[in-house]
Amino acid sequence: MLEVDNINSFYGKAHVLRDLTLSVPHGNVIALLGRNGAGKTTTIKSIMQLVRPASGSITFNGQGITALPPHKIAKLGIGYVPEERRIFTDLTVSENLLVGKQPPREGAVTWTEDMLFDLFPNLAERRSNRGKALSGGEQQMLTIARTLMGNPSFILLDEPSEGVAPVIVEQMAKVIQQLKSEGLTVLLSEQNLHFAQAVADLAVIIESGAQVYSGTLKELNSHPEIRDAYLAA
Amino acid sequence: MEFFVAQLLTGLANASSLFLVACGLSLIFGVTRIVNFAHGSLYMLGAYVGYSFMQTLPGAVGFWGAILLAGVVVGIIGVLIEVLVLRPVYRAPELFQLVATFGVILVIQDLTLIIWGPEDLLGPRAPGLRGVYRIMGEPIPKYDIVLLAITPFIALALWYLITQTRVGVLVRAATQDREMVGALGVNQAVLFTGVFALGSALAGLGGALQLPKGGADLLMDFHILAPVFVVVVIGGMGSLPGAYLAAVIISVLNVFGVTYLPQSTLVLMFVVMVVVLMIRPYGLFGREEVAGEHGQVGEPELPIKPASTNVRLIVMVGLALLALLPLFGSSFAMVLTTDILIFCLFAASLHFLLGLGGLVSFGHAAYYGGGAYIAALLVTHANSPMELAFILAPLGAGLAALAIGWVCLRLTGVYFAMLTLAFAQLLWSLVFQWGSVTGGDDGLVNIWPSDWLNSTTAFFYFALIFSVGGILVLRHVAHSPFGYALRAARDSKRQAESTGINTQRVQLLAFGFAGLMGGLAGALFVFSKGSVFPNELEIARSFDALIVVFLGGVKTLAGGVAGAAFFKGVEDLLTRFEYWRLVMGLLIIFVVIVAPQGIVGSIRKAAIRMNVLKQGKHS
């Protein structure tokens, strides 16, 4: 579904992604693992073209997206859930969802506000509250719900378990499993290996901006030396 | 009581146009983060376009149709400005966009002059609304009552658009995080153009609506600018209810001011603004504004370096040529060069504040004009000898800058800039309206230097020594530990503070020092011309300095001086043409789009490319 081929991304002079190659097959949940600073967020931002790769190519369903502006990429059906959540704090929950709303897309679930409130019952009670009044966990749910309003067929989830309470992490895992069962493809960056194990089929480990491992999570479990080399903080 | 009510109603009617223009400006700022200085020009265009439509369309339908059409036409002009001028510079540093809008002001001024001619146009009366209503016995023009009645509906319609529609939700979302809105599939370019069109249309409507009250003239653009900025800042940048409330406050206050304190009408508005900002630093309904928080992208600043041997050599040769000018130049050349030297010092003092301190002052003319007026007042009222006045003027300007800086430096970003502008306008209004002391509009004359400086040549050398000396002192300070602390405070206030720099004090001292140097330039100016008029304190004078600093290159030490020399020279050439503003405006826009590093920055870049100059370590 998504092919990242030999991309190089920079922040100013800092070379963050080095010939990174990555393949996301349709219908899977892929965990993008790696230490702090390995380049997980940059990978996701590069796919979204929020960071423009200096070289290499990215294709989505066979179409090259490297030169497109972010809004066109979103229109193709790629949903982006940023690490810092970036909800609109002065807008209400419902208004936040309205910003994300896009026309229905063939082959993807068409989400409505009510369906999302079923998925995230906490948000239903707070639909008229402003974003700034939400707790961290609620904000995390809102940012996912907002992206789903765009009816994506593929979503980029940047560290959804970061900084939220364990009970929310559990809820988040259930949501991701449900999304997968509805046919969504997910690329999820994670530092929390337990969380990744609960939801992901495949794992890709990156280190210093390059891929160092790719395989199923089961295989990864049987290779503790890889885990220790690249993941133990 | 009757009189009071009548005054109140007139004030409310006057608030109508002011509100429309202000909320257009506020909307544009909220989404695009551009402080659109050309907004007054759009207001002026609205009046002229509306006038032309009213001439051709008949009757009441024609009158109101003309107003709506003026809004539409100005909206379309807004789209042209956004697409042609602003879109190429969205990714440039915020303040560059300001300069681009200065260019637009000049272009529109001359285009209006070309199309509609220099005469003031008397606005047509609204059909069926001639005459007055009697309210509690007081006559109120019928048109005022209509204005007063429709403004709340326009405000309500805008409020509905912003709070209740998806477009409004997107606008508010983009005000907070444009990038995220884009990543959710919204085309920002369309949103920006749309908001700019709407804001422009509102300004155009405002201009056309006030036609029966004020007509159309070529000074409308600058005249509306100050009250509109005051309204937006008092109300809080980006807040519609704030803009409405502030427009009402300012207009009502103005009506009462005319009645009870006619000497203070201009001052009053700025006093209100200063008081509001002291109590509520971000306006009545505004939110805290951090300059550059909204994804401003800029290259990291290059470290400044002492001039290389080559550059020193060039400067030495240039100075030697200047020193020899009286031998071969005409007296006109000496007068022009004196003007340029003084302007260079003025620009260099602003550049010190802006480039090194990152403190964007919109009111630097206060210290330049202030210095000139201090000297002139001392000579006129105290019979002070020229030498004493010349020493006291910069000191006075420096002290004034310390006092004003102490207030302004509590704020940052746009609010800081607006507050400095307000103080400069306050000073201007004082000088303008306090005629018995300052001569008002007639200025102060017969301020000549002492006998030993009375010849053109002698004063030329005097100006040369003090201007070049002042510029060298500014340069020297930039390379001193104080200059390092100032740049540290600019680049990262928190980090600078955690290394033990008292950034507040450093910035205040820099503000005072820049004021002192501006005052020195002003003192040189007044003795070179023998007179001073309030326009040396005007917004336009502050803008002159801002423009040359930006076009010279903010990020290069020599930027202010080079920009001033270049543009004073070009201006002297251009002002001989009838439509020099048009050419100047286009030149400014061209430089902003094509050479955003400014003159010095571009020369340096070219020199690096041609291997004449070594590349800096961080470039």
What key attributes describe this structure?
heterodimer, A: 233 residues, alpha/beta, six-stranded mixed sheet, B: mainly alpha, ABC transporter involved in vitamin B12 uptake, BtuC, two-stranded antiparallel ribbon
Task: Describe this protein's structure.
- The complex is a heterodimer of chains A (233) and B (619).
- Chain A is built from ten helices and ten strands.
- Chain A is of the alpha/beta class.
- In chain A, helix 3 packs parallel to helix 6.
- Chain A is globular and about 45 Å long.
- The two termini of chain A are 31 Å apart.
- Chain B starts with a helix and ends in a 10-residue tail after the last helix.
- Chain B has 26 helices and four strands.
- Chain B is mainly alpha-helical and 619 residues long.
- In chain B, a hairpin with a 2-residue loop joins strand 1 (132-135) and strand 2.
- Chain B is globular.
- Chain B folds into two domains: 2-219, no CATH class; 336-609, ABC transporter involved in vitamin B12 uptake, BtuC (Orthogonal Bundle), CATH 1.10.3470.
- Classes of the chains: A alpha/beta (233), B mainly alpha (619).
- Chains A and B meet through helix 2 and helix 3 of A and helix 6 and helix 7 of B.
Summarize the structure.
The complex is a heterodimer of chains A (233) and B (619). By secondary structure, chain A is an alpha/beta fold.
